[in-house]
From TrEMBL:
It comes from Natrinema versiforme JCM 10478. One of its GO terms (cellular component) is plasma membrane. This is ABC transporter integral membrane protein. Keywords: Cell membrane, Membrane, Transmembrane, Transmembrane helix. It is a multi-pass membrane protein. Residues 395-415 are annotated as: Disordered. It holds the Pfam family BPD_transp_2. Coiled coil: none annotated. The keyword Cell membrane applies.
Amino acid sequence: MSNRFESLLERLAGLSVLDRIVISLAALLAAVLVGGVLVFVSGAFASCRSGLQLGGTTFCYNPMQVYYELFLGALGHPLEGGWSLTNYSLGRTLQQTTLLIFAGLSVAVAFRAGLLNIGTQGQLVVGGLATAVTVVYAASIVPGGFVGTVVLIPLGVLAGAVGGGLYGAIPGALKAYADANEVITTIMLNIIAAGITSTLLSWQFQDPDSSNPETRPVPEYAEIPNIPVIGFEEVNFSLLALAFAVVLMIGMAWLLARTSFGYELRTSGEQPGAAAYGGVDEKRMTVASMTLSGALGGIGGAFWVLMVHGQWLENVPSLGFDGIAVSVLAGNSPIGVGAAAFLFGVFQSGSQSISTATSVPKELVGVLTGLIILFVAMPEFFRLIGRRYVAPGTTEPVRTDGGDPAVDDGGDGDA
């Protein structure tokens, strides 16, 4: 049985991109069918005035309507009349997509380095607060208007990246120099981040004009601007932010595939023995990888402040935890993160459409979307396990002379 399981993992590890796309589509179809049955049967236990009558039982929920609202409602019902490209539902979907790209990239970079960063949420929280505080205080010495926009937005994003990066470096250093398990440390640092930021907020940065736990709002000219004419006015979303996320996504793909740093990062994650034998400083790479991962999470916090709310709020949504599922679904591919983030954005926006247009309870909607994510992500999850643990040729490095790399002959071979 164990041999069969390892054989299956090896086959999954060697799948081509086309194979993985076909499997994902098949998994999505299976999830839709199973979820539809679940929704239909659940309707038999609900009370309603009208529904489908079968065998004396009234089924209150229509799976077709639920899926219509889930997928098309998230786009603003494009098949209906009066649809606009800048409608509220689509803007809400793209807003979540943008934020989840940053969170997904954060997790993906760490995983590609062989590290499990469960602390993106904490890094996002710290980065968001650093952004809000930096912009608010810098606005007092920076001119307003266009100059303020050009100066304060990059400054705020940089502050978020630095805050998140420094916070991500902590578990990286603990892993490198104290051999601390990064899963445990990053989980604990999520809790610490929430406590520290809450304390700093009440002690120093609380908005005196508000009873809610939040910082002073950043100036309006320091928020991410809309594109004239085609901007989304009904929801706090900017196509410029999405464009930046896409550029960053492409940049990370280039970094991992085309640079020596990316090569060392990938090798240390996929073949740590070969990386060490090739001269890669494992400790330095661990800290650098977690710092980069944290910086990406911090940028997500910066855009949450500068695009969505215009200030830092104590109640930060679980974007960092969603980023874990986005990364797994994307196979830790920076380019794949974009598609996975859009799917999650559709689910989050479509769930609100379902709650508005149908009587299906939000708990059942959560089960439905979770089921779809589970079906689609599990094949990719097992493929990643196969690549990491049982894929052929990834266990031990081999010397160029065919000898054992663990054996040192102690001489130049001429004695």
